[in-house]
Amino acid sequence: MSNLLSYKNYNGTVEYSKEDECLFGKVVGIKSLLSYEGNSIQELEQDFKTVIDEYIKDCEERGIKPEQPYKGSFNIRISPELHRSIAVYAIEHGKTLNAAVEEAIKKVVSL
Question: Are the CB atoms for 70 and 29 separated by under 8 Å?
């Protein structure tokens, strides 16, 4: 079960503010801060979609490319022992380090 909203390849969180008695969230995976809120799940989802549509429209009007989340490249920090193990695995299986890491990640997320 996921607590993320999805629309046009963007994802957003779903949170609850007890103090304000409302739902709220923000778009994740991009540097721009895009937030939304609602008093029900339906209102939250609608505001999320509206924020995404307005962001894309604003970028078009300004002549800039909207940020795309999850470009397929990221840096990770792991122990030297794990780094060595995955590098040896890659060599032994005739793969690049990137291909070996991708294979491992796919196993974790069941792709």
Answer: yes
